[in-house]
Amino acid sequence: MVFTGIVEEMGTVVALHRKANLEMWDGSKSEGFVLKVRCTIALQGAYIGCSIAVNGTCLTVTAFDATSFEVNCAPETLRRTDLGDLAVGSLVNLERSMTAGDRNSGHFVQGHVDEAGKILEFKKEGESLWVKISLSDSILPFVVPKGYIAVDGTSLTVCEVNQQEKWFNLMLIAHTQQCIVIPKKKVGERVNLEADCLGKYAAAAVSGLGERVAILESRLVRAQAAASLGVALAAAALLLKALGDFRPSGVAEWPP
Q1: Which residue is catalytic, options 30, 40, 60, 136?
Q2: Global pTM?
Q3: Residue 3 annotated in active site
């Protein structure tokens, strides 16, 4: 189950609050954060337990009616994402999880947000809009020029990456500007970031290979040192033997 990063609609937050009586697995009651969103397209085919990405965050529908749905947000979700910044009336990007036969016009988006970055700058160029966004060291290695990134759940192409100043930028065409929440935010507001999962898996695989190569190189260095020592000892033994066999003419004993 994944998303495509092609936002289906913008929904409106109609309620967000903490409920003290959410039932746990053992029947006990505990407090939780509940988000209610009004929408149209995202409700098509909805059922209890289905997944809907809200600003790129994969969430489980716990209740719905003809005009809205509810989801619970875990503490880790609130720590990692911008959902805690929402208020009644806020617009959010919505996308239903794709089915096996769906066309993917974006990229594989898990809905597992890495972090929330800050919008640093908006700049117009013709009908397009440049957006500069900050990011941390933890996600920076996975953001590359012309690579994919999901920003508030929108599949977008990275244009530039500044490793020293820790930002990247992207460009939104006019159509995209009308369909997503990013242009409606202000400089300083946060957006959810999810790096391309394929890049993360590749980096993890290479990291493991690097560790194994380092071990092999260490063993090779030790083997080379031992071989060098062996060669030196053999050379010394040959030299001593040569000296022992050498006897200058006229000398009764050599070495004297």
Answers
A1: 60
A2: 0.78
A3: yes
The catalytic residue among 112, 205, 214, 237 is 112
62 is known as an active-site residue: no
Has 107 been annotated as catalytic?
no
Q: Shortest CA distance to 173 belongs to which of 125, 133, 117?
A: 125
Lookup: tokens for 159: 């244009």
Please report the beta strands in the chain, taking only residues with DSSP state E, as ranges in sequence order: 9-23, 29-38, 51-54, 57-64, 68-73, 91-96, 115-125, 128-134, 148-151, 154-157, 160-162, 167-172, 190-195
User: Quick check: is 68 catalytic?
Assistant: no
pLDDT digits (tens, 9 = 90+) for 181-198: 999 999 999 999 999 988
Q: What are the φ/ψ torsions at residue 142 (nearest 5 degrees)?
A: -100, 5
| Predicted local confidence at residue 28, as pLDDT | 84
* Model pLDDT, residue 123: 97
